[in-house]
Write a structure and sequence with these properties.
This protein is mainly alpha-helical and 135 residues long. The protein is 54% helix and 4% strand.
Length: 135
């Protein structure tokens, strides 16, 4: 479940091919091969609010289609007390900025220019899967 504290520069060096030429597979393999336990399989947000915020980020940035992800996000926001309550949740506000926070306080910035689009899309899909499991 833990995320290694990885700098944008490290991710930029590892994820050189965002799309095409095996970029997606290489991106996933690169995430899985990094030291410190960072892998796509181990990515997990530490709160319902953060998952909802990340889904909001992923939808707004076109990493996930709004049709399926929006209903999961809306249901999670209802669990937080609705949109007005969710917007005051620190996990949600971090997630909406693209910051994944695990339950141990480690973070992964999905909005940074060093994290390539395909890898971010894969993380968004993983967060959507986690969101569905929280319903």
């Amino acid at each position: 479940m833990g995320l290694a504290p990885v700098s944008r520069a490290q991710l930029g060096d590892v994820l050189k091919n965002p799309m095409g030429g095996g970029g997606a597979a290489e991106s996933a393999a690169a995430l899985g091969g990094m030291g410190g336990g960072l892998s796509l399989q181990s990515l997990s947000s530490g709160s319902v609010g953060n998952v909802a915020g990340l889904l909001d980020f992923c939808i707004k940035n076109n990493y996930l289609g709004a049709s399926g992800a929006a209903s999961v996000k809306d249901k999670l926001m209802d669990k937080l007390g609705g949109p007005s309550q969710a917007s005051t949740d620190t996990g949600f506000t971090s997630g909406a900025r693209g910051i994944l926070q695990d339950s141990h306080g480690k973070t992964l910035d999905l909005s940074g220019s060093g994290l390539k689009a395909r890898a971010t899309e894969q993380v968004c899909e993983k967060v959507l899967s986690q969101g569905k499991s929280l319903l």
